[in-house]
Design brief:
This protein has one domain. 70% of the residues lie in helices and 3% in strands. It has a three-stranded antiparallel sheet, with helices on one face. The chain is globular and about 55 Å long. The two termini are 32 Å apart. The C terminus is likely disordered.
Length: 374
């Protein structure tokens, strides 16, 4: 364990005694669980693709050090630097998202990936935490009396992101970004009339997506009527949970990973359920719940509106993404290709989540009563 005296006034010393160390330790535990599950789920997928059985695990391991560095370096930042990083990151990710529409790699009918320097990146993963901080800053400025144009600015940022996501198309990601923005508007104290109008717009948007996007309609129909379409992956996931029982069939003894194409990504929770059982699944849920409720608890004690709004957005994104992934695995939600944070395989997802958690740790650090520069 790292030990630094309270009298240490170095940058790292101040970081150690002001960071939320409990959340940091739980986050590291979640990352360890993720690598254990990647090691369990990915060899079978790699073998089916003609790769070395540890192909995906090694690639994920390569991204581990950069992810840890991102968490540490970003969590060192002041509030002002977190805001600047978010605005620059948001602008850069938006440009890359637009590039996916023109020169992106089409996978399963969607253009969400772009190749840069030999790496495949999903820019929308990086938009999520950056948007949460950028929108939180704009809303906090509006609430402080800087002018209604900051409200409009936050709305424009949301509309741009949603527009590009729909064009890709990535309706699930659009839902997450919208939920983040809605949570921030709620915390900022938006008038109930506008809340009602916003809810109406969301319902209308869902109806339009159902009407105009066949894959959205198909997923909703199959969720409402499982007998009316192909639910192979969901059915196999449910079989895996049933076979796992309370304590699982044992490491390496699961079979669902040998038949599910997305066993190492979207359905890694089902692999955990089969090999390690209900008890392991509950542990994973508790780790996510602890990070979310611990984060919200610290944010409730904040006097800085920017910190409250930006942190709320990041925590909402993190928790909702986990809920959607696990809900899909348990047939509680329509299917959606969304990773389980820090558990599923994916370099873009790992680095982007590290960025978001680094920002959350920076935002929730203990600060002098006068506060840091905003």
């Amino acid at each position: 364990m790292i030990w630094l005296p309270r009298t240490d006034r170095s940058l790292v010393g101040r970081w150690w005694w002001t960071i939320d160390r409990v959340t940091l330790f739980v986050l590291m535990a979640l990352i360890v669980v993720g690598f254990v599950m990647t090691l369990a789920a990915s060899p079978a997928v790699a073998a089916r693709l003609g790769q070395d059985q540890f192909f995906f695990f090694r690639r994920q391991l390569i991204f581990l050090l950069p992810a840890l560095c991102v968490i540490f370096l970003v969590s060192l930042m002041s509030l002002a630097n977190v805001r600047r990083l978010a605005l620059l990151g948001f602008a850069g990710a938006l440009v890359m998202m637009l590039a996916t529409l023109l020169a992106g790699q089409e996978i399963k009918g969607a253009n969400r990936w772009i190749h840069i320097a030999g790496l495949s990146l999903q820019p929308s993963e990086f938009v999520k935490p950056c948007f949460a901080v950028a929108a939180g800053w704009a809303l906090s400025e509006a609430r402080r009396g800087a002018g209604p144009h900051f409200y409009a600015g936050a709305g424009v940022l949301w509309a741009i992101v949603i527009g590009i996501l729909v064009l890709q198309p990535d309706v699930g990601m659009a839902v997450v970004v919208t939920a983040v923005f809605a949570a921030q508007l709620f915390v900022a104290g938006l008038p109930m009339l506008l809340v009602g109008l916003g809810a109406g717009v969301l319902v209308l948007g869902g109806a339009v997506a159902y009407s105009l996007l066949p894959h959205v309609a198909s997923r909703v129909d199959r969720f409402l009527d499982p007998s009316g379409g192909d639910n192979y992956q969901i059915d196999r996931a449910m079989d895996a949970f049933q076979a796992g029982g309370l304590f699982g069939r044992g490491p390496g003894d699961g079979s669902v990973k040998t038949i599910l194409p997305d066993a190492h990504t979207d359905f890694i929770f089902a692999v955990a359920g089969e090999e390690y059982g209900f008890a392991a699944c509950v542990l994973v849920v508790l780790l996510f719940a602890f990070i979310v409720f611990r984060g919200l608890g610290r944010l409730l004690a904040e006097n800085n509106l920017f910190v409250m709004l930006a942190g709320t957005g990041i925590v909402t994104q993190f928790g909702l993404q986990a809920v959607i992934n696990m809900g899909v695995n348990l047939r509680l939600m329509p299917t959606k290709g969304m990773t389980l944070p820090f558990i599923s395989y994916g370099g873009s997802s790992l680095i982007a989540l590290a960025l978001g958690m680094g920002m959350l740790l920076a935002l929730t650090r203990k600060r002098p009563s006068m506060g840091e520069a905003e």
